[in-house]
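Sequence and structure are kept together here, with a separate record for every protein. A complete record is shown below as an example:
=====
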Amino acid sequence: MFYCREEELRIMNQRYEKDRYECIVIYGRRRVGKTALINEFCKDKPTVYFSALNASSRENLEALSKAIYTYKNPESSSAPTYRSFEDALEEITLLAKDRRLVFVIDEYPYLARAEKSISSRIQHMIDRFWQSGKLYLILCGSSMSFMEYQVLGYESPLYGRRTAQFKIQALTYREMTVFHPELSVRNQALLYGITGGIPHYINKLEIEGELDEAILANLLHPSGYLFEEPENLLKQELREPAIYNSIISAIAGGASHSNEISTKIGLESGVCAKYLKVLVELGILKKETPIMEKPGKKTIYIIEDNFFRFWYRFVPGNMSLISAGRIRQIYDRAVKRFYPDYMGLVFEKICREYLLRYAGELPILLRDVGQWWGTDPVTRKELQIDLVGVPVEGNEYLIGSCKYRNEKTGKEELELLKKYAAVFRKEGQFHYYIFSKGGFTEALLNLEKQGEVTLLTLEDLYL
């Protein structure tokens, strides 16, 4: 079943109907659903689909030759190899001469690394032949930095040859509810907290009843598909997976500043910074600075990918007991009981998405929403505001608090927000928002009636 991505599919089909040259660049992190989108688009369309290999130039030429011959001769089991990539691309030109043809190169970075001249060769074919024909070219890749700099970038031979591009993002907390609409709102939030809106992970959890059972069988059990997923992904993407694993483990263990991380894993800070940059580019980590402030001493690293964050939070520390087969005991005592704590940051992310995407008319037009933290100059205490909404213009701000707990939130939370807001900005107008999983006390609800605060429950975010 194909879910979401309707807008991308609509635009791709609209361009297909124009019956002229197209070059569509599709990129995004692994498992996000790029190939599923392309496969859905290619249904019932004449297509040469070539998935590049993380292998030699010769092996990629053989795979491309096979893809072309399979299109030309679906019944044939043999596929002679073209003498060169130039010959193979000339064959594509002939095939698209009189009819609409979709030519997909999936995992393009693999091909470009194996055959250094391929981007220049494709540029040559576009300029001389394809631009005046009916070829519908799709270049797809999971290495976001490569696609942004080596395909879309100004210095790339392919610069200016694309007709459209799609950066495929993880699904939002609301979008992913279509996979399992039967789940309660709280389980939908937990599912988002585990998978981060990555369709592949949602599918591989194989939820057929209780979410708890799916987690036990497919994520925490050594035989489950997702049990070794983070380690496998690091091995597939990176040359030194052990070092990257150590970095992520250090951050999961509480290290957040670059010097803390480098000290904890025993690397020089400059060397460690290079590894951190790669993990940020992969979308596994995020470099975060208090909103409206420039990067500096306050800048920290967090695990942005929910699945990695969940796995590193609960699996490595319990590995011995998991291997001993005591999975259910571990789940009850060392995993499930810590969900409220784990879900705190996830809830903040959900609230941020709500404000930026789904909220109705807000008191201000938001440019961005993020965290803010700093020191109270009077008490010298460290303060943190969960959500600060920054306006497109003006001096009005949205100040928000997110409480993922079963207890009702009271008016003291609003009083605290007001104190924190005064430290954040001495001048300005503030609009207060409090999000609470457990609801609100009568006293706080009365303050909402008086217009002092806007209150939202977890259920409200899914309406």
Observations:
- The longest strand covers residues 366-375.
- The two ends are 24 Å apart (CA to CA).
- The chain is about 45% helix and 15% strand.
